[in-house]
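Chain A, query sequence.
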Amino acid sequence: MAMLLKSGKRENLSWRVYENREAMGLASALYAEGLIRALLDEKDEIRMIFAAAPSQAEVLANLADSPNIDWSRVTAFHMDEYIGLPPEAPQGFGNFLRRHIFDLVPLKEVHLLRDADEYARLLNEAPIDICCLGIGENGHIAFNDPHVADFNDPACVKKVDLDEMCRRQQVNDGCFATLDDVPTGALTLTIPTLFACRHLVCTVPAATKSAAVRELLERDDVDERLPATIMRRHPNATLFLDADAAREVL
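Chain A, predicted structure.
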């Protein structure tokens, strides 16, 4: 049983803190599974967006192991991708998601992000039901770092330059050996694209995210300087934290 330490709500955003990363990942996966099954009771198929990051490993593992999800009725997207990596690079987000879920379950379709215009067309074919996401050390969602975040962005998918804090996070997470190895550019779904998803399931472990979590839950304003604050305005957003990520709000 996942041990819940604390829960609360900031504006529309519900948040829950669990004793460790494993409990957090299980709780987030069970919540997402419940949404998937409920939505599939309503309609024939659903569409989901997944984040690719070590922070998502536990929730993805639990979702992939679930015997209760009819993945053949789920179409999958991912939310961002580096520019300039070789197609086979293990750090590529599409490749990460292939290893952690896309190749492990019998999805109806998987759409990989390679061309912004084509991806925007695919995303706009029908509403997105669930987005499983995290937040960055700088408060980004997807690759919407503070200097490029736009709550009213007219684009669906765009090319961005990554800030240094974001790129250093990739080294901190063990994805790259040095800062020079991290690409400087990426394609990302924009904030309005993410906000338009019917449900947001946000999973955030680790002490390296604790300052961003504190700002997300305690700062006065919803502001592009901390892009993740937009979740406080979403009608169906839930934040799952481990004790390390929540240490400044416990």
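The CA atoms of residues 17 and 241 lie 5 Å apart. Residues 21-42 form the longest helix (22 residues).
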